[in-house]
Here is the input.
Amino acid sequence: MSVRVRFAPSPTGKLHLGNVRTAIFNYLYSKNKKGTFILRLEDTDAVRSTDESIEGLIKDLKWLQIEWDEGPIIGGDYGPYRQTERYDIYQNHLKKLLEEDKAYPCYCSSQALDKLREEARAKGVNFIYPGTCRRLTEKERKEREASGVKPSYRLKVSPHIVSFKDLIRGDVSIHTNLFGDFIIVRQDLSPTYNFAVVIDDSLMKVTDVLRGEDHLSNTPKQILLYEAFGYEKPNFGHFSMILGPDNAKLSKRHGDVSVEAFRERGFIPEGLFNALALLGWSDPEEREILKKDELIERFSLERVNKSAAIFDENKFRYINKQHILCLPLKDFANMIKPYFVKEGLVNESFSDEEEEWFLKVAEIVQKRISLLTEAVEQAKVIFEFEPSLLNDEIKAVLQEEDCLKVILSYALKAEKRDLTTRENYISLVNEIKNETKIKGKNLYHPLRICVSSSMSGPDLDQLVPTIEIGSKLNLPVKIESTSQRAWRYIQFLREQGYKI
Ligand code: GLU
Here is the structure.
């Protein structure tokens, strides 16, 4: 039978790392097995489920390129894929269990139950429903019904051990005494999570239920429901938790870990997808940088770790950087452009020249960032120039007599040249070298200082032509040419008392 898995989020907030990692593992597993990946919205919590969360969830999954084969929007043979649209199905299932005497109505008030819960807590024991309403005679039931009390419904659970083989954790056994007769349908006729999930997973023909470890304690209840309905059980597998670097469960304390926040921080989908796939799974050859297709090909549940995964933002950034490097230049340029538009550095719609020039800007930036949000900072050197003596290193360089010679020579020559190509720039530098007989770092340091006021940065033969082309364009903020920069630097040095 072909594999069918599902991702079944409750749309009660933003999609965060823990949830989306479950989605990714399900996705990779199904694609590896050439199976089906289903998206199902578990929106039965009328108070907490919102359309906004659903929209956010769909946007995040699409952004990460986690496409579903069946589910909201696209539909499928086993829909609807939204639980609030399946209430009649749940009611029919309840009816069947009641007819077969496998479930019963419970008229206990929430106050009475709270009292029992309180007593259990005081004794330090687990609260289990004592089965009061299970033992009601038909007459007693009728009386309660007549008094207008709306019942909830409970499954009859016999005391025994429920065992199953977890695909990740191995053998698991849990005694039903831990939970007793549990509620399957609430007073308002809404299904509980366990009830709806079993019905949906059965009717949607899910073969493997793969989810977070936080649901491990629900699995025995679900197994009892499969048995009550006479439905075939799927395989179960529970992924370990994700912890923060301090070994505490990943939460808001570790910063905003929603997918949206990662997108806003400048992660790209390929990078985040890869980083998430490594949270609890490892490649057979310990490779770390993998594209989606490679992850699909190499993923297996055998290599999913039983112990908790540790989230490390630096590793996420490192992986993201590698994926940024792999992007075709044009795509990368399109991705960073909005940040430049927002800063008012480039026009929203480009002329052909601007577009071509911006590719050069992007080429400089691409090698230097881990997050898209760092692009503007890394490109600042192209757009801005402020003469300074920044640090002792620059001051030391400027003490060299040769240095001042180079700067002056550059300023004089550059203003008469077209430096919009790498070749022209290199030939100018060679000319300065031949005339002044200055070479090596005594030549390159001063050049760098007078065009960028810094000791480090992109290669000059790439940077200078990019600045020069930019200076000729009609950008929102005028870019100064490198000769203007050099002259301003000279002026600045004179003000600082340098003899130049
Ligand atoms: N709606 C549940 C959740 O978001 C799904 C659990 C499951 O996969 O069964 O945690």
